[in-house]
Design goal:
Shape: globular
Order of helices and strands: HHHHHHH
Oligomer: single chain
Length: about 180
């Protein structure tokens, strides 16, 4: 493998991942500024969802071109079909959801008690809970899919090529936590 191809394949390392997170924020804020100028009377949550989509689209387009990958490579191929995977996982996931919601609520309350939310965070979460259809799609569909593409499809995969598996997972989790700026 030539050195340039290896460099593209191994990108990003830990520092590169941190720069990607910053680049993602920049692309999203740039998109948000453009949307706010183009549609000043628009709903903030709808603009935020669209800005997230456009910003991540800009980031992924550049990143995929640099890594010389296509979007299908972001997802792990498997021998099982999507239908078979859903049949095996859907019932256990649905059975766990109520318990996870209860435990998650307790953990959230504990974290808020230990690390109180700032007024900015309180406003942001209040706006997120006032969901329009566009915001619901952005928060429940776009954000998880885009995060999976970046954090697992690109960052974790590159980390696994560079670092031992445990270290790669810890670094990837740390970058993910930093990107969300919330404990």
């Amino acid at each position: 493998m030539d050195p340039q191809q290896e460099q593209h394949e191994l990108f990003p390392g830990l520092w590169g991942a941190l720069w990607l997170v910053l680049a993602g924020f920049f692309c999203e804020y740039l998109s948000m500024g453009l949307l706010a100028d183009m549609f000043p009377e628009g709903d903030a949550m709808e603009q935020g969802a669209l800005a997230q989509l456009l910003g991540n689209g800009l980031l992924f387009t550049g990143l995929m071109a640099f890594k010389r990958m296509h979007y299908g490579e972001l997802f792990h191929s498997g021998q099982s079909s999507i239908r078979a995977t859903m049949a095996v996982t859907l019932l256990p996931v649905l059975a766990m959801v109520p318990g996870l919601l209860v435990v998650g609520g307790w953990m959230n309350q504990l974290l808020v008690d230990v690390f109180p939310l700032s007024s900015w965070e309180q406003r942001a979460f209040a706006e997120m809970s006032d969901l329009s259809v566009a915001a619901l799609v952005g928060v429940c569909v776009l954000a998880p899919v885009l995060e999976e593409m970046l954090f697992r499809g690109i960052i974790l995969r590159s980390f696994l090529k560079r670092y031992p598996p445990g270290l790669a997972i810890v670094h990837s989790a740390a970058v993910f936590g930093l990107a969300h700026m919330n404990v």
